[in-house]
Design a protein that fits this description.
183 residues, alpha+beta, SH3 type barrels, seven-stranded antiparallel beta sheet, 5 helices, elongated, Alfin, transcription cis-regulatory region binding, transcription coregulator activity, Alfin_N, histone binding
C-alpha cells in the first residue's frame, strides 16, 4: 500500500483457477503469537506458494530452461531467510535484516539518542529483537542496531548494525557508561 502498511487478504478473483492457491488462514494464528513469529510463518507460506507457482510454470520449459530457472531461484534468499535473518542455505551468507524506516529527519548516526537509556533492569530475554541505538565514543555518534541475542546472566548480547555488521557486546559496560538507548 502507499502508506507502507500491508494486510493479508484473500487472493484476487482474477487469478487463473489453474494456478496453485496460496495458503489461507494465516490470519487466524496472528493474534495468538508474537509478531516476529507470525511474520516468519507468513514468509514460510509465501515461499512455498512462490515455489509452487514456479513449478507450475516450469512444466512449459525444457530441461535446460528449468535448470536456469531453479538456478536463478536458488541464487536469491528466501523470504523466510530475510525475515528471520538466517544464513542463506545457498550462499552461506547472513541475509541483511529488514530494518524499520527511520524518520526522514533522523539519520542512522547522530550525536544524540532518540530512545531511553538502557538500565540494568532492562537486561532481560525480552531485549531480543528490540531496536536500539549504540553510542560510539570515538566519533561521538549513536548508531541504529537490532539486538539479535541476549544472555542476561553473562550480560552479553549479539547486535547487528543497520549496515549488516554483527558485534558481541558487554551489556554491563554499556549500561554503566550509558552507551545504549532502547527504541
Amino acid at each position: 500500500m502507499r502508506d507502507e502498511t500491508w494486510q493479508v487478504g484473500p487472493p484476487a478473483e482474477e487469478v487463473p483457477p489453474e494456478l496453485p492457491e496460496p495458503c489461507l488462514g494465516i490470519n487466524f494464528a496472528r493474534d495468538g503469537m508474537p509478531q516476529r513469529d507470525w511474520l516468519a510463518l507468513v514468509a514460510v507460506h509465501s515461499d512455498s506458494w512462490l515455489l509452487a507457482v514456479a513449478f507450475f510454470y516450469a512444466v512449459k520449459l525444457d530441461a535446460q530452461g528449468r535448470g536456469r530457472l531453479f538456478k536463478m531461484i536458488n541464487s536469491q534468499p528466501t523470504l523466510f531467510e530475510i525475515v528471520t535473518n538466517r544464513k542463506s542455505i545457498t550462499t552461506g551468507a547472513t541475509v541483511q535484516p529488514p530494518f524499520k524506516r527511520q524518520k526522514p529527519d533522523r539519520p542512522f548516526d547522530s550525536p544524540y539518542p532518540s530512545g531511553k537509556l538502557m538500565k540494568a533492569e532492562d537486561v532481560t530475554p525480552q531485549l531480543k529483537g528490540r531496536q536500539a541505538e549504540l553510542f560510539w565514543p570515538d566519533d561521538h555518534k549513536w548508531y541504529l542496531v537490532e539486538i539479535q541475542a541476549v544472555n542476561p546472566k553473562a550480560k552479553q548480547a549479539k547486535i547487528v548494525y543497520a549496515s549488516g555488521e554483527f558485534e558481541d557486546v558487554d551489556l554491563e559496560e554499556i549500561v554503566r557508561d550509558g552507551h545504549m538507548a532502547l527504541l
